Amino acid sequence: MKEPPKITEQLEGTPVRLTRHSPGYWQVTFDAPPLNLFGPELLTGLEEVVRRMQASPELRVIVFDSALQDFFIAHFDVARGGEIVSRKTTSGILPVFDVAVALYESPVISIAAIRGRTRGVGIEFAAACDIRFASDKAIFGQFEVAVGTIPGGGSMEFLPLLVGRARALEIIVGGEDLGAGIAERYGLINRMITDDKLDEFVHNFALRISQFDQVITGKAKALVNERASRPQLAHMYESRAAYVQTASRPERKPIIEKLRSWGFQQDSDFEYNVGDYLNRIGENNDLPLQ
């Protein structure tokens, strides 16, 4: 099908790039090298995307992807987490949840196109999208429990709905890195696609949806939402409180020190292979491992 000219805009002060392929099809690209940490600027970009999405009645489909080959969203930016947790929202819930709820309730179909590593809040954001496609080289991990805290950005709410209770426990409590094949089998993603075909597949899928009547696509999503289980706001409040409480425990300090010695939040081997390092998280904290 013939494609109209696209318009690309870097959202001011954020690592978020918005491409309008047409009035009905937008693409949102995260570009915060080296890791695409989920920090205040990325959140600001997402909040602006949501604001524009809600004011665009012709929009039918929006794709979220990454400009980085190795990272979709690495994880929460712990060094600046206070700036996010303390941010006020009209709903009173954590801003990450505010974005997630907006995506869920919008008639727009949201698609995560996942390449590289996505852990922690990266999984939580992807899980909040309606549809998830991933490269066969993608890696997923929920490592909070292994480092002394509780996921507080949506995994407690979304993962049981996507993969079931037992597999949600395996992902959250086990803290292992999972390849795209397992993620597809578990239902964490809709489909695994070879890395060289991911962009083309997602683009064509979104372009296809963008041609349909937005009244019908929105109604179809609303009906599916009514028939499916949905995350509860009360549970989101509880998860936020559990994260804040566990993250501030004094017992967590030596774990954080170990993570820093391994290269946490740096362009390091640790960030590429978190699951392998967590096999050694219980070893002597006085002896940093290289």
TrEMBL record:
Organism for this UniProt entry: Chitinophaga jiangningensis
Gene Ontology molecular function, alphabetical: catalytic activity
CDD domains for the chain: crotonase-like (cd06558)
Superkingdom per UniProt: Bacteria
Pfam families, sorted: ECH_1
Name under which the protein is recorded: Enoyl-CoA hydratase/carnithine racemase
Transmembrane feature ranges: none
